[in-house]
Amino acid sequence: MKVRLLTAIVLLGAVVFAGSNWPDLLRPVVKTTDGEEHIAGQLIIELVPEMRGRVQVSEQDGIALFGIPGLDELNRKWGVSLIAPLWRRPTVDPIAQKYGCDLQYLIQFDVNQDVMPVAADYQNRAEVAYAVPNGYMRFDEVPNDPEYGRQWHYVNLGAAVAWGVAKGRTRVVNCVLDDGLDLFHPDIEANLWINTPEDVNGNGRFDTLPYPDGDLDGIDQDMNGYADDVVGWDFVTGDPIPMPYQTDEHGTHCWGITNAVTNNGVGVAGTTWNSRSMALRCGQGGGISIYAAIGAIYYLVPMNAWSISMSFGSATPYQPMADACRYAWESGLVLFGSAGNDGAEVMRYPACYEGVENVAASGRNDTKASWSNYGTWVDVTAPGEGIYSTVPRLVGSYASLDGTSMSCPLAAGVACWIKCYDTTISNATCIQMLHDACDSMPDPLYAQG
């Protein structure tokens, strides 16, 4: 996207954001014989609790070192060039410690190296709790006619009645983990969450110019480990401008479903009627890496977010991602994951992790969408066919898409509306209220519909 490119060029000589320890998440995606995918030449490892406080990352002759002899021996053996922590905040809260969030690291080595023997070597070390590939999870979207459906889903949800009872509150913050969003879309910008300490010119918006003309001064004003994160963070490239790459539209579409600016005489309405949403970019080109998704969760939880929408998945469960989801749930957030679009009775992750609501898709007649996954593990079903929402201005501003990818942010948006109605509500009570408000579905394939 031209705006992103020009901004990056201006900043290149002026501001340093994430430093040299941000991994290359644009490496090739490798597909294994069982169909699962991961980023080439990268592992995520979690160290055992006894290693807490012992890691001193350094570099010697091009090899990244932990400062732990046994691990450094393996790093030299496999030519590890980078060690990137998943937890970047200077302090660690007790729930994060409980799940070892601060003990998780990505290691990066030769892009052509098979990751499995490397993982086995690290897994055999007493210092390592587990070692897994940096899994790549595809978005659960099916493209459709951009004029089909518009916003029929709000009729089925009874949204007009709900909006008559309560509308969005700016202190209720929801988060869509996806491929970024068009920050300056006329139906998005006004509902962006603003990290006030980083808004250095104090105008309540994100100005992507170096200070004093804009907000980018390269200083981590709130000391959370992310400099200049006025509206969020790009976990792919390690900078504070989470705009989508070229024609990527998935994230902007999902973000708009949850929280497009409502009652502004422009475009479409969002489910929450004007709460606030962070801008987070975790992937591009059709999917995300678990490193980026986990990093985003560790970023947003301490920033007092309420909901997380995850419209992606794979059939493989990854322990670090499961730990991140449990950390978010126990910290008081609600999490939603898309069930998948295989049209089959199969489990998908993160939707099937503990603490995550598994969201399947329905059509206009409130029965299962033909392509939606199903099963007793589905928690809730939401409209997912012909959902009309925002897309980047570069590709037309608005479009209609199908997928459990669309159902997921819609369900998350309802949870945000519940929180706006009662800001004292807990995540467990909110989910129970969401279930209680659901209608039974006249479809035998959706036992939990």
From TrEMBL:
<dbReference type="InterPro" id="IPR050131">
    <property type="entry name" value="Peptidase_S8_subtilisin-like"/>
</dbReference>
<protein>
    <recommendedName>
        <fullName>Peptidase S8/S53 domain-containing protein</fullName>
    </recommendedName>
</protein>
<dbReference type="InterPro" id="IPR000209">
    <property type="entry name" value="Peptidase_S8/S53_dom"/>
</dbReference>
<dbReference type="InterPro" id="IPR023828">
    <property type="entry name" value="Peptidase_S8_Ser-AS"/>
</dbReference>
<keyword id="KW-0378">Hydrolase</keyword>
<dbReference type="Pfam" id="PF00082">
    <property type="entry name" value="Peptidase_S8"/>
</dbReference>
<keyword id="KW-0720">Serine protease</keyword>
<dbReference type="InterPro" id="IPR036852">
    <property type="entry name" value="Peptidase_S8/S53_dom_sf"/>
</dbReference>
<keyword id="KW-0645">Protease</keyword>
<feature type="active site" description="Charge relay system">
    <location>
        <position position="178"/>
    </location>
</feature>
<comment type="similarity">
    <text>Belongs to the peptidase S8 family.</text>
</comment>
<dbReference type="GO" id="GO:0006508">
    <property type="term" value="P:proteolysis"/>
</dbReference>
<dbReference type="GO" id="GO:0004252">
    <property type="term" value="F:serine-type endopeptidase activity"/>
</dbReference>
<feature type="domain" description="Peptidase S8/S53">
    <location>
        <begin position="172"/>
        <end position="430"/>
    </location>
</feature>
<feature type="active site" description="Charge relay system">
    <location>
        <position position="250"/>
    </location>
</feature>
<dbReference type="InterPro" id="IPR015500">
    <property type="entry name" value="Peptidase_S8_subtilisin-rel"/>
</dbReference>
<feature type="active site" description="Charge relay system">
    <location>
        <position position="405"/>
    </location>
</feature>
